[in-house]
Write a structure and sequence with these properties.
- The chain is an alpha/beta fold.
- It has 2 domains: 219 residues, 3-Layer(aba) Sandwich (Rossmann fold), CATH 3.40.50; 65 residues, ACT-like. Chain A, domain 2 (Alpha-Beta Plaits).
- Helices cover 35% and strands 28% of the residues.
- The strands form 3 sheets. The chain has a 6-stranded mixed β-sheet, with helices on both faces. A 4-stranded antiparallel β-sheet has the order 11-12-10-13, with helices on one face. Strands 2-1-4 form a 3-stranded antiparallel β-sheet, covered by helices on one side.
- A hairpin with a 2-residue loop joins strand 8 and strand 9.
- This is ABC transporter domain-containing protein.
- InterPro entries: AAA+_ATPase, ABC_transporter-like_ATP-bd, ABC_transporter-like_CS, ABC_Transporter_VariousFunc, P-loop_NTPase.
- GO terms for molecular function: ATP binding; ATP hydrolysis activity.
């Protein structure tokens, strides 16, 4: 039986001036990386505050690691959750070593573990530098090290790769993959959708305080109902010859260039289309299925709700 680290049921948070989130229902299985995406003001930050227990829901219920966050003040429970905010801020005059040691003491971590984490995030050479001399990317990495203190079972990460160069981003996701192997559950907010696509198990899309889509990328592709795209390589001079038969199979030719054709068809017609292409024999040299990207899916769900 799959165990969920996060369960939200009919959760709303309304303020006198506005409705931050309304009727939120979703769950995150243990060991899963769930991407939380949406435009600014969609309700992502409020959702994280609710999960952390920093604000209480107006209606609905939350179960975080099997507990209601408002009832859990124990060190054990708090250590089980790590949080990296979008804008990391620490004492400007303290060194990296002093900062990580301070937060380690709050979480009851031994000194060697804090230094191990600084090495893990690539800051061992900057331990004795003051925080105010750190670059944006270094500050993010220090924030990640702080979030990993206490060996959390649940990580909440808000724009964690902001300010990181490509190499540092890859290193960040290497760390995340290792954590997931250990069963850590991760809820990650990011606007870099192309980066998320190869990393996430599931995606929750928010718009105007509501969840408008949630599930694996395949689930979202099904929900979106977009046509399937195929790129076909044919023998020299044969592209025009097979174009009409493909159109007779209800395919739409979106691009034809030399030996290459790009077509779209309904997802339900995929197997029929592949069988037809197979019947064309050696004329067809290669078929490449082009999946709908997360960027395209996000645009669909945002547009459908009138963003």
């Amino acid at each position: 039986m799959i165990k969920n680290s996060i369960i939200l049921e009919n959760v709303s948070k309304h303020y006198p001036s506005h409705k931050a989130v309304t009727d939120i229902n979703f769950s995150v299985p243990e060991g899963c990386l769930m991407a939380l995406v949406g435009h600014n003001g969609a309700g992502k930050t409020t959702l994280m505050k609710l999960i952390l227990g920093l604000v209480q829901p107006t209606t609905g219920s939350l179960s975080i690691l099997g507990h209601n966050p408002k009832d859990q003040a124990s060190v054990t429970y708090r250590n089980a959750i790590g949080f990296l905010p979008e804008n990391v801020s620490f004492d400007a005059n303290m060194t990296g070593k002093e900062l990580i040691a301070f937060y380690a003491s709050l979480k009851g971590e031994i000194k060697s573990r804090s230094l191990e984490l600084m090495d893990m995030v690539g800051l061992s050479a900057a331990l004795n530098r003051r925080y105010k001399t750190y670059s944006k990317g270094m500050k993010q990495r220090l924030g990640l090290a702080q979030a990993l203190l206490g060996k959390p079972r649940l990580l909440l990460l808000d724009e964690p790769t902001s300010g990181l160069d490509p190499a540092a981003r890859q290193h960040f996701y290497d760390i995340i993959r290792d954590l997931r192997k250990d069963g850590v559950t991760i809820l990650l907010c990011s606007h870099v959708l192309t980066e998320l696509e190869a990393q996430t198990d599931a995606v929750t899309v928010m718009n105007s305080g509501r969840v408008v889509a949630s599930g694996s990328l395949e689930d979202l592709r099904t929900q979106a109902g977009l046509p399937l795209s195929l790129r076909i390589t044919v023998q020299e001079g044969m592209s025009e010859k097979i174009a009409q038969p493909l159109q007779n199979q209800n395919a739409t030719i979106t691009n034809m260039n030399g030996r290459y054709l790009e077509i779209e068809c309904a997802p339900s017609s995929k197997m029929t289309m592949l069988r037809h292409l197979g019947e064309l024999g050696s004329i067809v040299e290669d078929i490449e299925l082009q999946n709908t990207s997360l960027d395209q899916l996000y645009a669909v769900f945002s547009d459908q709700r009138g963003q």
